[in-house]
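Treating backbone geometry as a discrete language has practical consequences that deserve illustration. Part of our work consisted of pairing the sequence of a single chain with a tokenised description of its backbone. We regard such an encoding as a compact summary of how the chain folds. The amino acid sequence and the backbone structure tokens for this protein are reproduced below.
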Amino acid sequence: MSMTQDEFNSFCEGLPHTTHVVQWGGADVWKIGAKVFAIGGWNEGVGFCVTFKTSEIGFEMLRDAPGCRPAPYLASRGLKWIQRTGTESMSDVDLKDYIKQSYRIVSLGLTKKLQKELGLNQ
């Protein structure tokens, strides 16, 4: 069984200093320091999908994996974002790890001042 919208929101809410908005056609958008690290939402009749930022290596590994694809809109602009559409090659446990990695990747892009204020990456 795939992660539900409630499970996704609960997991992201549990990460320190996150904020949540609903935008882009009703998607749950999670941010750290006002920068997006995870998006949960319905997509083209596929059901609940989760989109996250990944490393260059992670993107190459996941882009063609069953149940994953380069994230619509974001990846087409050269950004390393993956959308999980199913559990064929990524369990919910792995998905949570990727969401945590996305959170860290995005947090490292915040200003040093903001990272310090939030107690991140010290």
